[in-house]
Structures are given as C-alpha cells and as structure tokens.
Amino acid sequence: MDIREMKYIKEIQLTGHFTKAAENLYISQPALSKAVKRIEANLGIKLFQKSGVKNVLTLQGEALIKMIDPVLEAYHQFEKSVKSIQTNHAFVNFGFTPYYCTPFTTMFLYAFKEAFPEIVVNVVEASQNILAQKILNGEIDVTMTEAIMPSPGIDVYSGFQDDVAIAIGEKNAYYDRESVTFEELKGQTFNMITNSQILYNQIMKGCLKAGYSPSIGYQSSQIGLLLQRTCTEDGICIFNRPMIYDNISANPAFKALRIVGIDPPPQCFCYVSYRKDANITRELGAFLAHITTALTEDTKTRIL
Fold this sequence. Notes:
Elements: H1 3-15, H2 18-25, H3 29-43, E1 48-51, E2 54-57, H4 59-87, E3 90-96, H5 103-115, E4 119-125, H6 128-137, E5 142-145, E6 154-168, E7 179-180, E8 189-192, H7 198-209, E9 215-219, H8 223-232, E10 236-240, H9 241-250, E11 258-262, E12 267-275, H10 282-298, E13 301-302
Parallel strand pairs: 3-4, 3-5, 7-11, 8-9, 8-10
Antiparallel strand pairs: 1-2, 5-12, 6-10, 6-11, 6-12, 6-13
C-alpha cells in the first residue's frame, strides 16, 4: 500500500461513507470504490462492511488502521518538515468557525506574528464538522470552536465561558438599562446569528420560554454585519459579550452602541482543541499557549 491508498482507507473510516470520503479526497466515488476493491484484492482481506447506512471497518480493517495511523502521522510530520526546509519557516494550521471571525482573531494573529515572525499561521474558516475532519486528518493543528468536538481523537487544550449580552443603539428604549429579560424584549427586532449556530438555539429558547417567537430583522454568522445593522436600523443584537466589546472597540462606527446584560444571562463558550496524541512541536506549543493567554484575558472565566 502507498500513502495515497492509506489516506483512502482512513477517510472512509472517518466519514463512514464512500461518497463523502470521495468528496473530501477530491476524487469520484466510483474511483474510490475501485481503489478499495484493488487494495482488498492485493491484501486478501475485506476492509469494510455495512452497518445500517454506514461503512464500518471489519476486524481485519481495524487491525490494518492501527498500523496505518502512525504511518500517516509520520508522513504528515515529514511534509511539514519539508515545507519548513523549503521556506525556512515553521507552520501552524489554525481553524475556526465563522462565529469566531472577529477583531479578537485578527488582533491575536497580528500579535502572535509580532512575537513569532518565523512561524507562519495558515488560517482556515469552516463549519465545526469540517474542522473536526480536518484536525483528525492532520490538515489543521488547532481549532477554536463554540462547542466541544464529540470525537475521541480530539482533545480540548483550554476552554472559556462568558455571558451572552445585547448590543443596543442609543435610540432604543432600553439603552440606559443595566439588564433586560427575554420577556421585555418582546416586540424588538432581532439581528441575530444564523440558525446553524448554538447561540441561535439559545436565543430561540429564551424567546419561546417568554411566550413569543422573535421578529428577525437580519441574520448572519458575522457579528460585524449584525452590529452594523443594529447601528443603522432599529433593533438589537444578541451575542457573546467579549465579541460585542471587541467589535465596538475596533470599529468607530459602533461607538454609539451600548452593551446591556440579559437577566438571567445565557452562557457562551469557546474551546481551543487539537488532535489527541499529536506531536506538540515548538511552534504549536507556542500557539496554544499564546491563544490561551489571550482568551483568558478576553473572557470572563477559564473553565479548562
């Protein structure tokens, strides 16, 4: 077996589906199926079997994947070393969800570059499911997400908790309040996160518990767009308090906005994760330590 064939087997194991694995590997599904049959014929064993709608490893396949994993890890480290030799730079591949595309991310990356000019940080923005696949595949070294990734192959390096709050414009009746309840927000126009995010569910749950469905004016995964809409139109924006603060501090156009608490405050979370048993290189260790320090200073409570 060559490295390419090992990657085929590993991707099918991770996804459980030939079609999805083929998409991630950028080949056609028939070509992947043909390759697996050729591998099975050469080895004289059957690698996968059906379990419901998924393809799972056979006992022989499980034995093989235990031998494949360290080879793929060694090859991944080899590729990184070659790139370092070619460019005289070390690399960290950093992934985060659109939810975390904020001034904090930009300012942290700038500060890290100032402290470690020899380390190149490659940035990937994607959904949490895609980031989980990439970190397990070794394509990403570290991620920042709003939920723990439910995979035994991924460890949380550090975790943080803070309050969800409201950004309110100066024309709003609640502008001078210290806090408001979801009941009091009935009748407000909500500029809010898209429904693929955890915060969306928290907002909907709070409104429904108060006896109403929110009137949604604008939706986006980007807090900057939501705050801009809140500035120019009547309405409110409910978001992670540190993110609201970071955006108001970074953008003069948002200076008129005020942060008002929600009583009781919904909680928001941030998790910095990496692949379990990953080789913690000098550059990865520096990145993990510095982003943890930055988030500790930016948020309310460190929980991990």
